[in-house]
Amino acid sequence: MNQATNSFKAGQRVVITQQIPRQQENWNTTVEGTVEKYEQRKTGSWFAKAKDDRLWLDRLVVRKDDGEIYVCNLDQFTKVEVKS
Q: How far apart are CA 44 and CA 14, in angstroms?
């Protein structure tokens, strides 16, 4: 990811590009919208020595222009561009 996660604020306009690496090619998805919130949520996956023994993920909740809510798990293949 290209930006510190604590810099996401509600109301910011963002463009999120996610990439899923594959053997033959990469899948890319781009979403644009307004940040509703940034959060860290635990998953059902177990991870030793982590908080509550669970794997925690950074998530960005974005409202698209058509009103759809998009929940994005932020990882090393995610680029978030804040629009001015």
A: 28
Q: What are phi and psi of 5, to 5 degrees?
A: -65, -25
Q: Note the CATH number of domain 5-83.
A: 2.30.30.520
All structural domains of the chain with their residue ranges: 5-83
The SS3 call for residue 19 is strand
Reported as a single tens digit per residue, the pLDDT across 14-50 is 999 999 888 888 899 999 999 999 998 877 766 656 6
DSSP secondary structure string, 40-79? EEEEEEE-TTSGGGEEEEEEEEEEETTS-EEEEEE-TTEE
The structure tokens listed for 16 are 């999120």
Q: What is the mean pLDDT of residues 55-83?
A: 93
